UniProtKB/TrEMBL annotation:
This is Slp family lipoprotein. It holds the Pfam family Slp. Coiled coil: none annotated. PANTHER family: OUTER MEMBRANE PROTEIN SLP (PTHR37530:SF1). Keywords: Lipoprotein, Signal. InterPro entries: OMP_Slp (IPR004658). The keyword Lipoprotein applies. PROSITE patterns: PROKAR_LIPOPROTEIN. Residues 1-27 form the signal peptide.
Length: 171
């Protein structure tokens, strides 16, 4: 009787704990459209004409902001996104791209090093340089963008780890 009760509790605890962990991760912030493609900035840079007018959801780390008379351009090093569409900046980058935003963007609000996720449409490419190396930048007309705060980057990362036992760690 005792082992049967323990077996029932364990069988119920596993799905409950998995649902609890899934609930910790924030939902994606942008919903893909029927025109959204899962492609990296590097791949678009190699075949920009193939991806013209494709919708993308990209993120990365801001390199800098360049304001022009009618628009602002934000240079970004692209990174893969997690299930909540937060940039995973600890790994290798996906290449650089330029986010084109209408009007004036205050560089103070989009500082170098900040993490950003955006939804937009591939609007072409432009040759440029990174240091002294030639580079092709995909251009993305931004529809929506989100700058990530440190608290948002850490939310949804439970301080619970499973191994031979269950422990709680402080980050």
């Amino acid at each position: 009787m005792r082992t049967r009760l323990a077996h029932i509790l364990i069988r119920g605890a596993l799905p409950a704990s998995l649902m609890l962990l899934a609930a910790c991760a924030p939902a994606p912030i942008y919903k893909p459209t029927t025109n959204t493609v899962a492609i990296t900035p590097d791949a678009v840079a190699h075949e920009p004409e193939h991806y013209a007018n494709a919708d993308v959801i990209w993120g990365g780390r801001i390199v800098g902001v360049h304001n022009l008379p009618d628009r602002s351009e934000i240079e970004i090093v692209g990174y893969p996104l997690d299930s909540s569409q937060r940039p995973k900046a600890e790994g290798g980058g996906w290449g650089r791209f330029i986010a084109v935003m209408p009007g004036f963007v205050e560089p103070y609000n989009y500082p170098s090093g900040a993490l950003i996720t955006l939804a937009g449409r591939v609007s072409g490419s432009r040759a440029g340089e990174v240091g002294e190396a030639s580079y092709v930048y995909p251009l993305v007309g931004v529809v929506q963008s989100h700058l990530w705060t440190p608290a948002e980057m850490h939310s949804g990362h439970p301080n619970i780890s499973f191994g031979l036992g269950v422990g709680v760690g402080i980050h």
